[in-house]
């Protein structure tokens, strides 16, 4: 007897609907500039237009797509609009979307090498490629850069937040292998991303175990203040163990002086992690490799291709100079995961390199991006964003109603109207309400400051020009 017909989507229907969805997305990309960048909906608007309960009976795919157009799209803030200048970008690109589709389609769960060898081996290869692409220290390569059996290596994490958490956990393991966390102290700057505080909390340390070190007038960590804080803690019998430096702070892309911070860390035996979430991608351009200064002296490093390397969220590259503390912190081996390849020590099992057990085949999208653009294409687009940012800085400086509020090393301009906080708030609100662009703000020197980041995949000169014209017209 044959099975009764089920409810699954047949391969034929998948093919037809798949083409339709790709067509829909291609049209979306063609039209995205026409949508208001910041979604205008009010809280609850999206939900109110959808049924409260799930359907009992199968619904036609056409109805789902109609709701996507009618209800979902108006509730989307268009991160893929070239007029998106807010926060830091969340890049996407054709090859990356297709890579993610292939990953979903293959549906691989690559927790162990044995559960899908290609998932692990491609990830190791692509992360080695990224070391070369960005000019990172050879010690981050899985083979140590000499084809051998390197101590370091890279792994794809879902986010910079998770990568930094793993760094804290590895550092904690190295500093307190017996699990006694009493007196452990971590350090970062007052400008560091909030994820550092969250990660220290998740690692089981009290809020008081994180010191936020003061910054200089470029908003970069002051290494002498770090040294003083570490020395004071040691003198008081506490146990400094971890420093997170930031290359490209979220507020203003300030760059902490990693070599001077490494001096302090080496002197006191502290784990040094560098969070270069957005700025790290700049290193694809040789003349911007100042973002790599000092990385040959750090224990761990992360950056997000999902911010500025044309790769869809989620994709963070996390590197360690020596994998043993990371694996020591995160490896738990139950009987049901034992297998010959792991036992032989011949393979990498990435489940030991991050918090979850399961993992998607994320290397595919980064592999497709790198192969599609080549180093040349990636360099071209990142370099172009930085050139456009410099042009914008020139326009702002030439207008005496505005001032640039922080150094601009890369693709983020922090600036403000000289008329004070209310004037800046009015400009921000008017620009965002116009739908023509999306900007966000920060506070620097306790003054409301506008932030404009040029990093969306398809942003061109005309978008930056139009954005500035609109801002200047509201001044
Ligand atoms: C410096 C820095 N670190 C960490 C993060 C968090 O990134 P993710 O969303 O990948 O956790 C950000 C986000 O903007 C950031 O700017």
Q: What's a concise summary of this model?
A:
This protein is an alpha/beta fold and about 475 residues long. The protein is about 40% helix and about 10% strand. It contains 15 helices and eleven strands.
Describe the structure in your own words.
- The chain is of the alpha/beta class and 475 residues long.
- It folds into two domains: 11-34 and 39-76, dopa decarboxylase, N-terminal domain; 99-369, Type I PLP-dependent aspartate aminotransferase-like (Major domain) (Aspartate Aminotransferase, domain 2, 3-Layer(aba) Sandwich), CATH 3.40.640.
- The chain contains 15 helices and eleven strands.
- It has helices at residues 11-31, 45-48, 61-72, 94-106, 117-134, 160-175, 194-202, 223-235, 258-268, 305-308, 324-330, 340-343, 363-397, 421-434, 461-473; strands at residues 153-157, 184-189, 210-213, 239-246, 271-275, 300-303, 316-320, 402-404, 412-417, 440-444, 447-453.
- The strands form two sheets. It has a seven-stranded mixed beta sheet, with helices on both faces.
- Strand 8 and strand 9 (412-417) form a beta hairpin.
- Helix 4 (94-106) runs antiparallel to helix 13 and helix 6 packs across helix 7.
- The relative contact order is 0.15.
- Bound molecules: pyridoxal-5'-phosphate.
